[in-house]
Amino acid sequence: MLDDFLVRAALAGVGTALAAAPLGCFVVWRRMAFFGDATAHATLLGVALALALDISIFAGAAALALIVGLTVDRMAGPRLSGDTALGVLSHASLAAGLVAVSFLSGVPVDLSGYLFGDILAVSRTDLAVIWGGAAGVLALIAWRWSALLTATVAEDLAIASGLSPERDRTILTVTLAVAIAVAIKAVGVLLIAALLVIPAAAARAVARTPEGMAGLAIVIGCASALAGLQASLMFDTPAGPSMVCAAAAVFAVSRGAAALREARG
Fold this sequence. Notes:
By secondary structure, the chain is an all-alpha fold. The chain contains eleven helices and no strands.
C-alpha cells in the first residue's frame, strides 16, 4: 500500500494535521500566530545546516525552531516588545537560511520544496518521522492539557494552583518546534503557520468547549489535507498551497455559519 505515492501523500497530510491542529488551538488562544510564523521561518536555516552537516533535516529544523522560539521568549522585555523581537528573528532567520542554502555547493537542494512543501514526494522514512512527531505532539498535549489550558486561560489561577506558566510556555515552544519540523515536507516553511492557525480558527467559530475545539480542529485539518490533495490532482495545482486553500474555505464557511447563528439570536 505504501508503494503508492498518493497513499503516502494522504498519510503524510493526515499526520501533519494531527500534529498541527490541536497545537494550533493554543496558538490561537495565546495569540501566537506571528510566533509560529517566526519559528517556521527559522527552520529553513535549520534545513541548510542539516544538509551541510549531513544530519537529519527533521532534527536540524526542530533545533533551529526551538532555538528561535526560546530566544524570542527571552528577548522580549520592557525595551524590546515581543512582536518586534519576532519580526527581527523571523526575517533574519529566513534571510540567513536563503543565504546558507546558496553556499551548499554540490548538495542538491529543492528550495521550492522546502518553501512550499513537496508532499507528493514523501518517502516511507518521511512518513515515519511525520507520524512519530505527530504521536509525540499529541502525547505531550494530552499529558499537559489541563496545565496548558489553565496557564493559557488564567495565568494567576495557574500560579495559585501550584503550576508554572513559564514551564508550560517552554513545553508549548518545544511542542511547536516539533510540529513545525514535521510539517515542512507537507506545506513548507512559508505555509506552516497557516496549517497551525486556520483549522483552529475555523473550529473556534463553532466549538463550544476547548476540547471540542481541539477535536474539531483535527477533523478540519485532516479533511483539508485530503481535500487539498484531491484538488491538486484534479487541477494540477501545488499540493501544499491547495491544502491551505481548502482549510481557508472551511474557515470562511465556519465564520459564515457562526455569523448566521448570532444573527438568529
